[in-house]
Amino acid sequence: MVVADSISAHITSGNNTRTYDGNGICYVEFGNRRAGRVDVTFAAGQTPFGHFDTATETIAAEKDEYGASRLQRWIGAA
């Protein structure tokens, strides 16, 4: 989101006050409607740190919702 805000501010001559905090999430598919989640922080000057959440159907549903919400926000797709 920070990159998109920066590009938008540049195009519209606006201001972007957001900065990247180093946090990132990645979903990992395991099949059988299960997905795990990796939550990592990449902070400048520090060794990356984070944790892995074991694959569950709940996280798979969260992953699906995350993807759908991004498509809706970015291109208006349902």
What does this structure look like?
With 78 residues, the protein is α+β, with helices and mostly antiparallel strands. The protein has a domain at 22-75. 38% of the residues lie in helices and 32% in strands. The chain is built from two helices and three strands, in the order αβββα. Strand 1 (23-31) and strand 2 (34-41) form a beta hairpin. The model has no long low-confidence stretch (mean pLDDT 88).
List the helices and strands and how they pair.
Elements: H1 2-12, E1 23-31, E2 34-41, E3 49-56, H2 57-75
Antiparallel strand pairs: 1-2, 2-3
**How large is the radius of gyration?**
16 Å
Shape: flat
Count every helix, treating DSSP H or I runs of 4 or more residues as helices. Answer: 2
Q: What's the quaternary structure here?
A: single chain
Strand content: 25-35%
Largest sheet: 3 strands, antiparallel
Q: Termini separation (Å)? A: 20 Å
What features would you highlight for this structure?
3 strands; 32% strand; 2 helices; 78 residues
Task: Give me a quick take on this structure.
The chain has 78 residues and is an alpha+beta fold.
